[in-house]
Design goal:
The chain has about 140 residues and is α+β, with helices and mostly antiparallel strands. The protein is built from 6 helices and 4 strands, in the order H-H-H-E-E-E-E-H-H-H. The chain has one domain. Bound molecules: zinc ion. Zinc ion (ZN) binds next to helix 4 and helix 6.
Amino acid sequence: MTGRGSGGFVRRVARIGWLRQVLLHPVVARPGYWFATACGLVWGAVLGRFRISNTGGVILAQGLPTWAFGRGGTTIGAVYLTSDNVSPAILEHEAVHRAQWRKYGLVFIVLYVEAGQDARRNRFEVEAGLRKGGYA
Ligand SMILES: [Zn+2]
C-alpha cells in the first residue's frame, strides 16, 4: 500500500475499462516502447561511448557511469543500461523487463513506480525473477 496520489490514479484509470484498453492497446503501447527504446539508445550511446551490442534478449549498453542508471542497471524500452552488470542471469531478468515495456509502453513507468520500491514485493521484479535480478 502506498497511500500516495499516484496509486489512487492508477486504480481509478484501471477501473475505467475503455481507457485501460486504449492505453494498453498495442497501437498505443508499442510506439511508447519504441520511444523509450530510442531514449535508452541515445542515453546509452552517449554515456557509454557507444559500447552497444545485441544480446538477443536486450540491447546492451554498457560502460555507463553508475549515476546514469538505477541499482545494478536499468532497462528502458529494449535497452539495458549498466556499467558492467552483465551476467547471463541478469540479462535474462532484463529481457523480461523488455517484454513488460513492450506490453505496457510508457504506462509501464507509472505501473512500475506504483508497484513499489521494494523489489521483493514489486510484481514486475517478481515476474522477471528476483534471484536472476540479484534481489534474493
Ligand atoms: Zn528488475
